[in-house]
Structure formats: structure tokens, C-alpha cells
Amino acid sequence: MPAERPDRARRGAVLIVGRGPTLDKLGDRLGQPVVQVENLMEAIGELTTLQPQGPFRSVIISAEVAKRATGRAIDALKLVDPSVEVLLHVAPPDDSIAASVIGRFDGHFLEPDQDESTPEPPEDRAVDSPEGEPEAVTPPQETAPAPTARPEPEEESASLADRASPEDELGDIDLIAATCADGEDVEAVALRLIRQQTGWSDVALLDDPAQAEAGASWAAVTEDEQCFGYLAATRAGQAEIEPWASWLACWLTFAQAWENHKKWAYTDDLTSVGNRRFFNKFLREAIAQARVQRRVVTVMVFDIDDFKLYNDRFGHEAGDEILRETVALLASVIRRGDRVCRIGGDEFAVVFADPEDPREPGSSHPDEIEQITRRFREQIASMRFPKLGIEARGSLTISGGLATYPWDGLTPDELLRLADQRAMQSKRKGKNVITFGPDAAEDSPDHG
């Protein structure tokens, strides 16, 4: 069985793709939350939807669905959720499932309570874990080729349009996958699909119809009064290209809406920085990258001392101004690869994850971060807030704590917990203090 992925450790939901007597009863047999859909398109939709029981642990695909699938369709599931385990439901050997499709699966799924009419699996194919949850099993050579090694998502540099070979037919599922995947070019995938469907080798999306070649037909790609450009091709007639322009406009509108919703989901409305959801995602990714590159990541947690008193005395409008100006000041002193996030009412977190060398020659990562936090603490204490009236200067202080990967913790939860504990230490020391490490090193007016 493949090693358990850490970010799936507490998942329990299973997504079943396909129908049939055995599959329809699989939920009762597993004793786990199950969602069942008809096809891979619906499966992608489920993976992109927040489930009440949490993210899916595994996707189990029936042999019948696998027969009609392409390798890219299986890859699309991983693009939507790289951590999900994609398993082929065990079935009698069937040569109609292409080897290129078999190779995309993480393994086979063998039901935990096979009946006597089903052939016993070989010794090296574990049936289930003590907890009764589904496990991936490696298919024997005589029934199907072993799954090929799958590169991790961050190692896949080619886009969907580039990965597909010339003979591969693209479809709507590829456009959905491109839309859901960060950094994928939906326009490139859509144009390639048009070329495959029409044979217009020179079809292109132009900024201005004047850029079209002589004799080319073109049509505006518009949706709800928004123009994405002009679709043009020399071998197309006007009546032929207009439907494709409308089709392309729909997909580009959908991709734009997806990006907007994703941005709203990760952004704090008041301060326009990352919210708690973004913080969790960014810190998890920063640690994973730091582990590979053998470098450190530091988390700072801080809040504004006695913020509630300011809100009560000067009103929420003044409180909102303090939060926005605090974020603006902090953004001006951190580095390009660092991120500020609002994770509570007046509680903020900063992930210091810039991969570039320190600005100060000869300085190390912790030294430079201490300089940044010291400068920030000093500047916030002398900042002007017009809505505070006569107390506009010198009336605000912050207290915070820092924790660094890998010395202080190996996971986001460990770092956040320790940084928060050190922030509480700063409060107990009289506030206007930032605590750095286990030896209670601190930055404060007395020590700065």
C-alpha cells in the first residue's frame, strides 16, 4: 500500500465514480461517508465543492468508466486535488482498459469483505487496514501493467495543452481541469480544442481584429458586454467562426469567475490581505517547498494591544482604519516572498518565506526577520491615525511571537501553536514586546 499522505490522514469520505450492483452497495460495506456520481465530469465537480464531511480521501473509479476514460481525464482529478488517492475498482482482467489509463491510477481497490465467489487476491495485495478503510493495492503483472510513477504536482511544468500529444482529442473535461488548476492557460487549451474540432490550424485570439490576416474571418469573443478579444482564422467562414467565438466567451467567463471566487475565498474583505484559509494554504506550501530546498520558514503571530478599548472609545470606523493602516505598514517592510494574513479580529500572522538571499550582506534568515519585526514594532508605535484624534501618535503597540521551521516545529499547526504561545508570553511581559525563541529572546523598548 502506498504511504499515507499527511494531508489525507484525517479524511474519511470516498468518492465513487460509476454505477452497478456492487458499486451501489459499496458505501454500506465501507462504513464510511460516500458520494457516488455517474462520470468523471461529475467527479471533478464534487472535488471542487466543499463537502460537509471534509475533503475526499479516495476516488474509486469503476472499470466501466475507466474503459471510456483518457489518461488526461484521470490526471484532471489530481489537478483539482493533488492529495486525493485515485483507485481503479478491482474487476476481472479486461484488455479494453488502455495501459495509458491504468498507469494513471495510484493502485487498485479491493473491497473489504469480498464474497466467496470472488477470486482471492495474491498474498501481496492487502485487503484492508485494521480500521476497515480502503487501501490501494498493486495490480499483479498478469492482470494489468503496474501503475507508472506519477510526478508530484509541483514537478509538472507542461500545461494541459502541451502535455497532450497531437492525436489526443481534447474535451470539456480538459477545460474544467485547466480552469481549476493554478497557472493553467484556459485560452491555450480552448484554442487547441477548436483546432482539433475544425482543422483551422491558424485560429487565434487577437486583441484587435486589425491584426487578422488578409481574408480571415473573425468574430468578437464577448459575454455580458465584456470583450475578451477577437477569434480569427483564415479557413473559417463568418457563419462558422461566430458560434466558436460564443463558445470561447462562455469558457473564458467561467474561468474568470472561478479566479474571482477563489480570490474572494482567500482574501480578507477589510484589509485585502490573505485570510485564515489562505494562511493555512500558503504556510503548508511554504513548508513543503522549504523541506525540498533545505531552508527555513518563520511564522510571526501578533495582535494590537488593547484593541478592544480603541474600538469602544473611538468607534469601529477608527478600529477598521487601524487594522488597514497596520497591514499597509507591515506590507511595506516585509520582503517580496513573505505574506501578511489576518487570522482573527485584530490578530495577524506573517509567513516569512522569501526564497531570496537576505538584503543585508552576511545576514542570515532569523537575523533579518528580527530586524524587520523590530522596525515594524517601532514604526507602529509612532504611526499617526487621524481618527484617534489627539492620541494619533504613540498610542498603539503590538505584541507577538515567532516560530521557525524546522527548529521549532515541522508542521503548520506546530509553528502556529508555538508562535501563539510566544505572543502570549509577550503579553505577560507587559505588551509592546515580540518574543523570538525558546531562550525568551525578545524585542521591546527596553531591549530594542
User: Biggest sheet: strands side by side, in what order?
Assistant: 2-1-3-4-5-6
Helix share bin: 25-40%
- How much is the radius of gyration in Å? 27 Å
Model regions low in confidence, pLDDT < 50 over at least 5 residues = 1-10, 114-167, 358-364
CATH architecture of the largest domain: 2-Layer Sandwich
Quick check: average pLDDT? 77
CATH superfamily of the largest domain: Reverse transcriptase/Diguanylate cyclase domain
Please identify the structural class as seen in this structure.
alpha/beta
- How does the major sheet shape up? 6 strands, mixed
Describe this structure in words.
This protein has 448 residues and is α/β, with parallel strands linked by helices. The chain folds into 3 domains: 6-155, Response regulator (Rossmann fold, 3-Layer(aba) Sandwich), CATH 3.40.50.2300; 160-265, no CATH class; 276-443, Reverse transcriptase/Diguanylate cyclase domain (Alpha-Beta Plaits, 2-Layer Sandwich). 38% of the residues lie in helices and 16% in strands. The protein is built from 15 helices and 15 strands. A hairpin with a 4-residue loop joins strand 11 and strand 12 (347-352). Helix 5 runs parallel beside helix 8 (172-180). The longest helix has 29 residues, at 238-266. It is globular. It starts with 12 loop residues before the first strand and ends in a 5-residue tail after the last strand. The relative contact order is 0.07.
